[in-house]
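User: hey, got a sec? need SDR family oxidoreductase folded
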Amino acid sequence: MDPNEFKGKRILVTAGTKGAGKAIFERLLKGGASIITTARTQPDGIDQQHFIQADLSKKEGTGKVIEETLKRLGGIDILINNLGGSTAPAGGVMVLSDEDWENALQTNLLAAVRLDRGLLPAMLAQKSGAILHISSIQRKMPLFEATLPYAAAKAALSNYSKGLSKELAPKGIRVNSLAPGFINTDGAKGMINNIASQNNGDKELALKIIMDSLGGIPMGRPAEPEEVAELAAFLVSDRAAYLNGGEFTIDGGSVPVV
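Assistant: Yep! Here you go:
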């Protein structure tokens, strides 16, 4: 890894205090970036100069992050919209309320839309920049039991990202999306432990149950957060200067269609 690859680059990575987001943040920081990340709560072990506390599912939160980012960094070169997740209950479509759908859209789509809109003027003024939206393979493989609103919102994010790329490329700004599958995060490990507790503590069986729910993973394992981070770093780097409007899947072969 080149410790100077992102030297001089001003970067915002949302939700970068755990999971793949943390790996992306750390990868870019090691590459020399001037970087800020966000979360709803202050994490341990992160320098305050690199952190803004905000709830990006709210307009006030995105407004705060836009203002603070431009103030601290003096501009923006790279924006990685990593925020995502689902709080919807299990039980299928009939148990989902309007609030469940609205929360999914605010978190997985509109937060990115608002941040793009607020930070794009700085990129447009300098006629350069890169935006990466973190989507999900669920945009093509929706799981109806509990995460249908999440999947629908990520599908909208991917579509929005494609349209934005066509508008901004002539103005010097690249836009891509990255769609991970199952990632071996702390949250995933918690899910494995929970399923294992219902199956005589068998973690291998628990992992198989999760992978089978995705139709299997030909690579035989989930992705490590650092593998997702390496792809994200490449996509926003100058090495990917001609890549625009693409969605890059990292799922070990889970998605069964081309």
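Quick note: Residues 98-126 form the longest helix (29 residues). Let me know if you need anything else on SDR family oxidoreductase.
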